[in-house]
Design brief:
Blueprint: E1 9-11, H1 25-36, E2 42-44, H2 46-52, E3 61-64, H3 68-74, E4 78-81, E5 87-92, E6 96-102, H4 108-111, H5 127-132, E7 141-144, E8 149-152, H6 156-162, E9 164-165, H7 171-177, H8 181-192, E10 195-196, H9 198-206, H10 216-228, H11 232-242, H12 244-248, H13 258-276, H14 283-299, H15 303-308, H16 312-326, H17 333-352, H18 360-363, H19 368-381
């Protein structure tokens, strides 16, 4: 079935605020090389959006009509990645990577096929098709390097200027094809303080449970992007209003109320402040902040443990419930253990916080640094002093040592019995010449 594509609006250099001086130097090199080789070259997606808003883009992604094989020949310092759709990564000094993709067509499932989630689509397409298959109008703009124009097929410039988040195409249909698009809508509305367009919002609030159709690891990764993005407090508000929050964390489905909303908003306001100061809380901390109001409701943490202490029964029950609460998000066991520890030990830090010196037995605990920082976040969120940026120490995850298995070594004979491929003892894979 053919699709009528919209015509493009082209904004000349004097009609938009994007300047080459604000574009990454390596990204410009890639675009100029593509142009000089006779291919088209466009800065696309979030890079164009952020530059239009006067922000510094995190990534500079490029699209072109060159195929992956042609790109690989053009850029020797590159590799092809991807299974669902092949991209080319171009490498530069300092571990910098510029991703280049070939313009893609509309997925056949986005046109008139049956309802499938995340279908494979490796078909190349035109500029208009590529714009129409993207998620949000504000992420569907192209900056063209030849004439320095911004090309807009879907009304993205108008939505940027009006502060609106809108899904490209028919919202309910686009969400059915890829439910993770709902998370991107909420994310960009929170980060940019934009309003979600009415039909897009209605489609999200009508289908939040569709997120259950996505792979667990993908949903976890998308959630962590939101919690680490510097606008997590605003994200929590929108996620709760849309019903997405309760799908991501079903433990809140029956207990969500205004008090819990306010708690979550305060906790993540602290996280956002630290993020703005260059301090990124570790992932287990973020999950613990998500679960803290629930732990207060179900286990009375920290209040009840201040009176009774963390008995073994409470700890085991809490550990089990944390595992159940995060199992569907594919959170690793080590992280779940850290989350349980932060919740259980929070009352200990509250109890000793008013003293001039921390007890020696507590400072010797392996969890002291993490527990102290988490308690400081809690104190700030509940009306105490701000966390001191200069005194923050975050423990690095400790890798478990590998088990050493005993093995018998044969004594090396004199002569030419040397390692086959390396000077190190035993050679590679222990292979030796015969």
């Amino acid at each position: 079935m053919s699709v009528d594509l919209p015509s493009a609006k082209i904004f000349s250099r004097d009609q938009h605020p994007i300047s080459r001086k604000d574009i990454d130097r390596e990204a410009l090199k890639v675009m100029y090389r593509l142009r000089d080789a006779g291919y088209s070259a466009y800065l696309v997606g979030g890079g164009v959006r952020d530059l239009y808003l006067g922000k510094s883009p995190k990534d500079f992604d490029i699209s072109t009509n060159a195929r992956p094989g042609q790109l690989r020949k053009l850029f020797r310092n590159s590799r092809i990645i991807g299974r669902r759709f092949r991209l080319v990564q171009v490498f530069f000094h300092g571990n910098k990577i510029i991703e280049v993709s070939t313009l893609r067509c509309l997925s056949e499932f986005d046109i008139d096929g049956p309802d499938h989630v995340l279908p494979a689509n490796n078909t190349f397409g035109s500029l208009g098709e590529d714009a129409s298959r993207r998620d949000l109008t504000i992420n569907s703009l192209f900056y063209e390097i030849e004439n320095f124009t911004v090309i807009d097929y879907v009304g993205g410039v108008e939505d940027l200027l009006a502060g609106i988040i809108r899904l490209v195409g028919e919202p309910a249909r686009r969400i059915t094809r890829d439910p993770a698009r709902m998370l991107r809508v909420i994310r960009h509305a929170a980060r940019n303080n934009f309003t979600i367009e009415e039909n897009t919002w209605k489609a999200i609030t009508a289908h939040p449970e569709y997120l259950k159709l996505c792979p667990d690891s993908r949903i976890r990764d998308e959630l962590l992007k939101d919690l680490k993005g510097g606008a997590s407090a605003a994200w929590v508000e929108l996620a709760i209003d849309s019903g997405i929050f309760q799908v991501l964390l079903p433990v809140y489905e029956k207990i969500m109320d205004q008090g819990i909303r306010e708690q979550l908003a305060r906790y993540f306001a602290v996280s956002d402040r630290l993020n703005a100061a260059g301090i990124q809380l570790p992932e287990p901390f973020l999950f613990t902040l998500l679960l803290l109001p629930w732990a207060q409701k179900e286990f009375g943490i920290p209040d009840s443990l201040l009176k009774k202490g963390p008995g073994g029964g409470v700890v085991s029950k809490l550990r089990k419930r944390v595992d159940e609460s995060l199992h569907h998000l594919n959170v690793k066991r080590h992280a779940r253990d850290t989350i349980t520890g932060l919740l259980v030990n929070l009352p200990v830090f509250i109890q000793h916080a008013g003293k001039d010196v921390w007890p020696k037995w507590l400072t010797r605990k392996s969890y002291f640094k993490d527990g102290l920082l988490f308690s400081q976040v809690y104190f700030e969120a509940t009306g105490g002093e701000q966390v001191s940026i200069q005194q923050i120490e975050i423990s690095e995850p400790v890798a478990k040592p590998r088990k050493q298995t005993a093995r018998r070594r044969k004594s090396s004979a004199k002569g030419n019995r040397k390692p086959a491929f390396a000077a190190a003892r035993g050679g590679i894979f222990g292979l030796r010449k015969k």
